[in-house]
């Protein structure tokens, strides 16, 4: 079985919109609707996107009595006229144009209307689907409404053709080829049938009307309901675009049934409660935000307001929160769905009950006084001696004129949830630390919430903290609020909540820290004490920081649970970070330049000494070869050595190792040859001298 | 190598189809981060009517709203690997199971792919909705039992004064997060109306933030029944509306009240208990509009382009730096304004020169036109470094840029060559060499 999600969801939605389903308070159509209508239907240069929307807007404005139509009139009438004169208009085209015209009253010649009427009559003859019948018949009805004769000659036949599409369960089919029956179609069909009856030149067969009346009763058997007596029509989800929500379906049925009831003689056998339930449904929706829904709601409510079956009277409470401090009156309004005055009646407060406090005297059968001027029934609550709290009030309406019983539906007993609020006195609040024996009450401190004094307590795990107070209602009873707890907060982080229990007319809590050691994780330190007392009926609900208590607790044993992790700081990652500068390695300390140069001088001194030594020794170069060839090789050899030493110099100055080694290699080879020549020459000359 | 064409042609064809699709839909892209197509999942299409003001503000800002029942069997977020929507609004608190192939994992994948989510629950919140919230780091207060509807947030000190609603579950809260990026430049004057279930933030999740909190006196309980044990959620631990910005910059909004989006709340006047100020209109419209701008990336979306670095005095980006080089780093940062990229001007963008830990962390200076630059000396440590910009600010998408760059030590010939301190050694060497030269001559030719 596929669950009917649509209706379930709507139920949830309505529950969400209203506070508590069983005692939902409904209000008649008010100014909120009027201002919403003007916001929803906004013409652009007097024009709406389509004629259908124009009708929705105009009809809504008409019912609510708002909106300026002259500009719409000026802009839309040409469109209407064009549509009516166009030979190619569909039944829907005529229908839309005619119903817009029925509100605007454009200047349309009677010939045009007669022409349209004859075209519509032709369309009716050729029609085979429900929508075609509907558009044509209603179109013709609007022509008649303009004062042009638009009699349907074959009313019996048309009535029969439309009736032929009905199903045994009271629903209708859209056309004969489509087996799917629809509640939405039933509403359309009934409206069409009502049209046929009023267009007929003679009487329509009463037996046929009787059958339709019976169908309507069966249709109402399929009505769906919520727990609180709200009734509505809803279709199973049909594929495709034909799906209409509960609001559109209900509106369609309401229109159909109300129009049918208006034209036939005799009364339809529908209980007033059902009409009441539907009205309740339509009002529960509140202010729809979609123009079509808005139109459906307002239009169907206007049918309900004026229907011949029974007119629902809505009992509503302008205020369900009544303060005993300001001596509010219990006020009840009884109006029709559009807020117009009801016939003379009396409202009775049948019963007052509360689930919270058993011993409160429940009020029974109080008649509310009537304020003619403001059309309000009222009752002073103070003389009733009802204490603050949440009450379910049951009301009953009794109409003065017994004839009205058949005209109006009052919905029987109605329940409302009412809050009586007042000022609750906190008496004798005391806080203190007790020793284990619980006797030494000397340390109990009286608290004064009106002052900013904070207590500061000191305790160890062998002691107890005690807090007690009394709560007294304006009538002197003990009050038990919904919210009453104390919070101990350890250094702003770990929180512990303790509910306060009431006993013997007072609230008392005794925190035995020895027993709580595990629960508070053996955390010593400062705990802030917060007391929260609040209730819906309490006008002075509060949250006070009473002060703090310094706890000295033993060290936790090993296997004790740790306090829960505290939530991470979510904001720490936002915001710039501290700048970081790299600290470079400091260069090694060097001696001053002067010192280096001094030592450079010192290193050069031995060279000087060496030269001076040579000069003192009286060296000579007499051994230098005198013949040309050995002299050349000697010069080259020493030039080579000098070049090698110079190369070392260059290596220091700019060359790298590779260049140096390359050049050194070349010089080396050169030196080997020249050195060999020079040294061998020197050797031969020295042997010569020896032999000589 | 027989038929190279068909294998090539198919991806090409797909590519062109995809690009056509994305062109047609004006899809989410890096250049235009604002969402366009939103899927609204509802329990009942009547929400379209009862919440129409909120939807029409979205539509008037250019969003394409697609309403579907949450159990619609044709439900799908993606087709052929392409997401059909940029954002998802879950206005279906009581849905037990989504229609079609959509499930919890599907929703999470959608967010993981960088798409945005608005989740609104109420007291009828199903396990599925609660699970989605839990995955986002938010724990809704649990229902105690099936018969007992979920606990509502009750606040006896900062409720909205109402003639018809006396149980103080209609909260008027004005404890907002302090961020103009999230809530707009204009201060929200009127309190925001809230009725629904409270939630707490997962202690281990650092990405989720409270946007609207309950007052310290609030608690979460069922107003119709007497409290048998202390409430599990109390005080400021209760979050009414929370946001998450995931690491991939997907944004999520979670609230325990579907009603706060309704026309009734949007239009309703509000007077907070204990305050004499009667606001003509609740703050809901402004709050929800502004926060939806944030969620759908109309605000607070940054992009960084043209990350450049080079040696001082040069313009080309080197492939390697030497220690102790002086370098310049610059990046351009722009903020999406909903329609165009505007220069982002602040003074707290920082760059890190990072290897295992930051060696240099420096605030960039701005030219007020979106360009941020700075210069610094490469540290005297060699290795593979990164230029890192980790920019996380409340309400902004996070920027995480990193560019790898190696740093080498001095080459052998890059050291100092003529050190004065060494001159005595040089002097000694060269004087020895000169003496050697003289000695060779003298030794060989002396007679």
From TrEMBL, chain B:
Domain OST48 middle: 309-447
One Gene Ontology term from the biological process aspect of the record: protein N-linked glycosylation via asparagine
Protein's cellular compartments: Endoplasmic reticulum membrane; Membrane
Assigned keywords, A-Z: Endoplasmic reticulum, Membrane, Signal, Transmembrane, Transmembrane helix
InterPro entries registered for this protein in UniProt: DDOST_48_kDa_subunit, OST48_MD, OST48_N
Membrane topology of this protein: Single-pass type I membrane protein
Keyword Transmembrane: yes
PANTHER family the UniProt entry points to: DOLICHYL-DIPHOSPHOOLIGOSACCHARIDE--PROTEIN GLYCOSYLTRANSFERASE 48 KDA SUBUNIT
General function of this protein: Subunit of the oligosaccharyl transferase (OST) complex that catalyzes the initial transfer of a defined glycan (Glc(3)Man(9)GlcNAc(2) in eukaryotes) from the lipid carrier dolichol-pyrophosphate to an asparagine residue within an Asn-X-Ser/Thr consensus motif in nascent polypeptide chains, the first step in protein N-glycosylation. N-glycosylation occurs cotranslationally and the complex associates with the Sec61 complex at the channel-forming translocon complex that mediates protein translocation across the endoplasmic reticulum (ER).
Name listed for the protein in its UniProt record: Dolichyl-diphosphooligosaccharide--protein glycosyltransferase 48 kDa subunit
Originating species: Zingiber officinale (Ginger)
């Amino acid at each position: 079985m596929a669950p009917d999600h649509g209706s379930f969801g709507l139920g949830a939605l309505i529950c969400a919109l209203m506070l508590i389903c069983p005692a939902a308070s409904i209000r008649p159509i008010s100014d909120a609707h009027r201002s919403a209508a003007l916001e929803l239907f906004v013409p652009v240069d007097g024009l709406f996107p389509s004629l259908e929307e124009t009708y929705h807007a105009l009809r809504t404005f008409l019912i609510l009595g708002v909106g300026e139509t002259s500009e719409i009139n000026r802009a839309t009438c040409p469109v209407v006229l064009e549509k009516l004169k166009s030979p190619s208009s569909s039944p829907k085209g005529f229908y839309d144009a005619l119903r817009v015209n029925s509100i605007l009253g454009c200047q349309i010649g009677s010939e045009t209307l007669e022409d349209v009427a004859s075209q519509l009559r032709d369309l009716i003859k050729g029609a085979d689907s429900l929508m075609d019948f509907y558009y044509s018949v209603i179109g013709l009805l609007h022509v008649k409404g303009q004062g042009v004769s638009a009699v349907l000659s074959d009313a019996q036949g048309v009535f029969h053709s439309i009736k032929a599409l009905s199903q045994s369960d009271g629903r209708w089919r859209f056309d004969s080829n489509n087996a799917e029956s629809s509640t939405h179609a039933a509403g359309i069909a009934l409206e069409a049938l009502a049209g046929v009856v009023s267009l007929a030149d003679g009487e329509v067969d009463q037996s046929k009307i009787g059958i339709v009346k019976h169908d309507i009763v069966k249709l109402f058997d399929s009505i769906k309901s919520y727990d609180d007596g709200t009734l509505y029509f809803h279709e199973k989800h049909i594929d495709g675009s034909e799906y209409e929500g509960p609001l559109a379906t209900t509106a369609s049925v309401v229109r159909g049934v109300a129009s049918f009831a208006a034209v036939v003689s005799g009364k339809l056998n529908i209980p007033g409660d059902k009409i009441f339930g539907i009205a309740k449904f339509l009002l529960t929706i509140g202010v729809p935000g979609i123009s079509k829904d808005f139109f459906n709601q307002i239009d169907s409510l206007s049918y309900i307001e004026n229907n011949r079956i029974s007119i629902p009277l809505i009992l509503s409470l302008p205020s369900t929160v009544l303060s005993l401090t300001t001596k509010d009156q219990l006020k009840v309004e009884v109006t029709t769905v559009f807020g117009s005055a009801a016939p003379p009646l009396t409202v009775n407060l049948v019963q007052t009950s509360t689930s919270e406090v058993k011993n409160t005297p429940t009020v029974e059968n109080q008649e509310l006084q009537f304020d003619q001027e403001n059309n309000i029934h009222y009752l002073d609550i103070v003389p009733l001696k009802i204490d603050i709290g949440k009450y379910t009030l049951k009301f009953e309406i009794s109409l003065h004129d017994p004839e009205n019983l058949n005209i109006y539906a009052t919905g029987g007993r109605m329940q409302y949830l009412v809050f009586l609020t007042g000022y609750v006195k906190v008496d004798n609040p005391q806080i203190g630390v007790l020793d284990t024996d619980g006797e030494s009450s000397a340390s109990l401190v009286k608290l004064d919430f009106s002052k900013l004094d904070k207590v500061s307590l000191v305790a160890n795990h062998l002691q107890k903290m005690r807090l007690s107070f009394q709560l007294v209602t304006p009538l002197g009873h003990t009050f038990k609020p919904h919210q009453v707890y104390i919070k101990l907060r350890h250094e702003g982080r770990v929180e512990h909540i303790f509910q306060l229990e009431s006993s013997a007319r007072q609230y008392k809590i005794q925190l035995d820290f020895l027993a709580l050691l595990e629960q508070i994780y053996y955390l010593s330190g400062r705990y802030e004490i917060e007391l929260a007392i609040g209730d819906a009926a309490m006008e002075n609900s509060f949250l006070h920081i009473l002060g703090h208590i310094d706890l000295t607790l033993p060290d936790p044993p090993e296997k004790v649970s740790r306090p829960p992790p505290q939530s991470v700081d979510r904001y720490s990652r936002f915001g710039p970070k501290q700048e970081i500068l790299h600290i470079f390695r400091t260069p090694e300390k060097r001696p001053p330049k002067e010192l280096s140069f001094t030592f450079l001088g010192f290193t050069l001194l031995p060279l000087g000494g060496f030269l001076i030594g040579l000069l003192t020794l009286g060296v000579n170069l007499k051994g230098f070869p005198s013949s040309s060839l050995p002299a050349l090789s000697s010069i080259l050899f020493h030039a080579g050595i000098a070049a090698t030493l110079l190369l070392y110099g260059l290596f220091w100055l700019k060359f790298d190792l590779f260049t140096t080694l390359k050049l050194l290699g070349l010089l080396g080879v050169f030196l080997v040859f020249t050195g060999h020549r020079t040294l061998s020459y020197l050797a031969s000359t020295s042997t010569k001298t020896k032999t000589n | 190598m027989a038929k190279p064409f068909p294998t090539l042609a198919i991806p090409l064809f797909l590519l062109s189809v995809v690009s056509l699709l994305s062109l047609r839909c004006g899809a989410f892209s890096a250049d235009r981060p604002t969402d366009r197509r939103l899927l609204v999942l509802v329990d009942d299409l009547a929400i379209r009517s009862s919440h129409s003001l909120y939807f029409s503000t979205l539509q008037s800002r250019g969003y394409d709203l697609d309403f579907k029942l949450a159990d619609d069997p044709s439900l799908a977020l993606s087709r052929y690997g392409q997401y059909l929507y940029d954002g998802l609004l879950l206005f279906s608190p009581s849905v037990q199971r989504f229609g079609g192939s959509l499930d919890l994992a599907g929703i999470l994948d959608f967010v993981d792919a960088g798409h945005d989510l608005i989740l609104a629950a109420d007291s009828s919140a199903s396990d599925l909705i609660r699970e989605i919230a839990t995955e986002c780091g938010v724990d809704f207060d649990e229902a105690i039992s099936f018969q007992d509807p979920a606990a509502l947030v009750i606040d006896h000190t900062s409720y909205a004064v109402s003639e018809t609603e006396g149980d103080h579950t209609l909260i008027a809260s004005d404890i907002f997060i302090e961020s103009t990026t999230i809530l707009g430049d204009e201060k929200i004057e009127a309190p925001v109306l809230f009725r629904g279930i409270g939630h707490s933030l997962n202690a281990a999740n650092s990405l989720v933030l409270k946007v609207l909190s309950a007052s310290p006196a609030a608690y979460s309980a069922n107003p119709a029944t007497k409290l048998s044990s202390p409430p599990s959620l109390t005080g400021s631990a209760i979050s009414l509306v929370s946001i998450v910005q995931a690491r991939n910059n997907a944004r999520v909004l979670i609230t325990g009240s579907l009603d706060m989006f309704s026309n009734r709340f949007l239009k309703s006047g509000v007077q907070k208990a204990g305050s004499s100020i009667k606001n003509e209109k609740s703050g809901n419209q402004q709050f929800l509009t502004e926060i939806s701008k944030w969620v759908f990336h109309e605000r607070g979306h940054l992009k960084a382009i043209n990350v450049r670095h080079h040696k001082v005095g040069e313009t080309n980006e080197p492939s390697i730096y030497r220690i102790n080089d002086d370098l310049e780093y610059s990046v351009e940062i722009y903020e999406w304004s909903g329609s165009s990229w505007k220069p982002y001007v602040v003074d707290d963008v920082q760059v890190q020169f990072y290897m295992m830990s930051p060696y240099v962390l420096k605030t960039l200076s701005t030219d007020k036109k979106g360009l941020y630059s700075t210069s610094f000396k490469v540290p005297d440590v060699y290795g593979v470094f990164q230029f890192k910009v980790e920019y996380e600010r409340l309400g902004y998408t996070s920027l995480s840029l990193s560019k790898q760059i190696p740093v080498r030590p001095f080459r052998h010939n890059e050291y100092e060559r003529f050190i004065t301190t060494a001159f005595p050694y040089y002097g000694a060497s060269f004087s020895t060499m000169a003496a050697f030269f003289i000695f060779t001559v003298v030794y060989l030719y002396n007679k």
